[in-house]
Amino acid sequence: MNSEQRVEAVRAFVISVRDRKFPYVHRDPRKVDWALYDAAQCTEAADMLALIRELVDRATARVDARRYCPSRRRGRPPTSPSDIAKILIAQSYLVVSNRVAEGLVHLYSNNLGISRTFSYKTIERAYDREPVTEILEEVITLTNIPLQGLEKCFSIDGSGTPTRTRQNYAHDRECQRKRNEKDAADTDAFPESDHDYVYSVTVVGTQHKLIASAQNALDHSKGEMQSFAKAISETKQRHPKMEMLCGDGNFANRPACRIVAEAGAVPRFLVKRNATLKRMGVVSYVRMLLDMVREPQQWLSDYYQREASESVFSMIKRENPGPLRKRLEPRLLTEDYLRNVVHNIRRLCYLAYLIDLKVLPRIRAAA
User: Are 56 and 140 members of one domain?
Assistant: First the structure.
């Protein structure tokens, strides 16, 4: 088979897949032990509070160990970032306002290990406090520790969290694609709306659906590729044994394949109908296309694992049906990031039952 025949074979395969004509054999559905799932649901609230306290305390210790602590200034000492972070996570988990969250300080102070009470204004201002943000990022890192070595395949995708009630990201993205097809345009930008979303590029483990990295922003003009390299770098740091990354056509380009290959993983992106086999210095791109033709069933089986991203977005949306409440940009980003933190902690609570995952022993050993 010469080069022209290989290009034709690749294009024919892509066209058949995009037109839903390829005879793909679906994977067997995963089995779920519903008795264990019910048990996890019954103890979810108690497990969440215990895990929030443990994760935030250890995250605070790790952040303090890295950060230079200046001498104490005059006046009343600031509220502990650790206490604030615990309440912010509990507030996002219960989906309540700042004033109701002030009541959580009194209700769950013993469960969460909060040292002193504070007002809803303190909670409000905490959404743009840098020490609190650092703790939340460290919590995401700690939640991934129990699955290191167990999760090797990941899915990446972009999404948007609405800031108003009458917004739907999937609808706006579909309208954008139709406009691009009509105008023959090729853009990576996020879809525009009357009110912007908090846009995010998220990497998710395909096996256990834990968020490995989440990069969010408010600028719709940048697009998903702007955050791709940082998302892959974070995922590699948190999962050194990453072997594969799958995603939709927005990432089916040579720069993305090069970044994935440099991270030691194999890319699985479905290219466009007019793809070529020109390397342009990226061998992993051509290798991905040739694997597509040589082993189409296995390639599609790997590629379709990207549905894990959509599944996680759906899970977060069901738990948070309303739009974001904040109005200031830094606070919007923190509120959106908190939903990812809560998702990871909740997943660990369920995985402790479903796969007998030793969550706390693994975190304590690493921290």
Answer: yes
For the stretch 76-127, pLDDT in tens is 777 899 999 999 999 999 999 999 999 999 999 999 999 889 999 999 999 9
- The enclosing domain of 237 has a CATH number of 3.30.420
The DSSP code for 284 is H
**What is the sign of the dihedral through the CA atoms of 337, 341, 346 and 347?**
positive
Identify whether residues 52 and 181 lie together within a single domain.
no
Alpha-carbon span 211 to 55, nearest angstrom: 16
**How far is 14 from 155, CA to CA, in rounded Å?**
20
Q: Do 239 and 259 share a domain, yes or no? A: yes
Domain shared by 296 and 174, yes or no: yes
The helices-and-strands tally (H runs, E runs) of the chain is: 16, 5
Residue 129: both structure tokens together: 């406090």
Element (H, E) at 125: helix 120-125
Backbone phi, psi, residue 229, to 5°? -60, -45
Which residue type sits at 82? S
Phi, psi of 194 (to 5 degrees): -60, -35
Q: Which residues pair with 217 in a beta bridge?
A: 199
Q: How far is CA 208 from CA 67, 224, 238, 285, 314, in A?
A: 32, 23, 15, 27, 15
Measured CA distances, 286 to 11, 79, 273, 315 (Å): 13, 55, 15, 35
Q: Is the dihedral of CA 188, 304, 40, 47 positive or negative?
A: negative
Distance of CA 14 to the CA centre of its chain: 27
Q: Is residue 322 part of a domain?
A: no
pTM: 0.89
Q: Do 204 and 111 reside in the same domain of the chain?
A: no
| Residues 17, 162 share a domain | yes
Tell me the C-alpha distance between 364 and 366, whole Å.
5
pLDDT in tens, 18-62: 988 899 888 888 888 999 999 999 999 999 999 999 999 999 999
Domain count, the chain: 2
Element spanning 214, H or E: strand 211-217
What's the number of CA atoms in the CB half-sphere (13 Å) around residue 225? Answer: 14
Q: Which domain holds residue 290?
A: 3-26+147-312
Please indicate, yes or no, whether residues 127 and 152 belong to a single structural domain of this protein. Answer: no
